[in-house]
Design brief:
This protein is mainly α. It has helices at about 5-15, 15-20, 40-55, 65-85, 90-110, 115-125, 130-145.
Length: about 150
């Protein structure tokens, strides 16, 4: 498991034995949108993205026993990711990610596709722009993880 995945799993399992019991025995983790943003935002961005995947796709790190547990764990990871961002001391990334979480929930509720573009745009807005290839790879990984 890569270092970023270990950190996400460590933070989650420290919070609840239920999250620890939900860890996949053989996680398959690849960073998706964090390569589009500054390195200091990677933990927060991928933690929030893991929460998103628990709500709407295939988690890279967790396999909760049921849908209710998946939603609760997803919410917990959203919160943890926002706390990681807040700890950096800048408000713009917290606001941007909170807006992204809200937008994705609204789009999913309305059965509108295309939130991968919103993820990429938000990550790029927080960073210096990683280029077209990194964006394409992120969107391809996002599509795979949504099943």
């Amino acid at each position: 498991m890569n270092a970023l995945a270990e950190q996400i799993a460590e933070h989650a399992t420290a919070e609840s034995p239920l999250w620890a019991a939900s860890l996949r025995p053989d996680p398959s983790f690849e960073p998706v949108f964090s390569p589009l943003a500054p390195a200091e935002l990677a933990l927060a961005l991928e933690t929030i993205y893991e929460g998103y995947l628990l709500h709407y796709g295939d988690s890279r790190l967790f396999a909760p026993a049921d849908r209710d547990t998946a939603l609760l764990l997803g919410d917990a990871l959203y919160a943890q990711g926002l706390v990681h961002l807040a700890a950096l001391g800048a408000t713009e990334p917290v606001r941007a990610m909170a807006e992204l979480i809200s937008l994705c929930a609204q789009q999913r509720g309305d059965e509108v596709d295309g939130d991968g573009e919103a993820w990429a745009a938000t990550a790029e807005r927080l960073g210096a722009g990683a280029g077209a290839d990194a964006r394409r790879l992120a969107l391809e990984a996002h599509t795979r993880l949504l099943g």
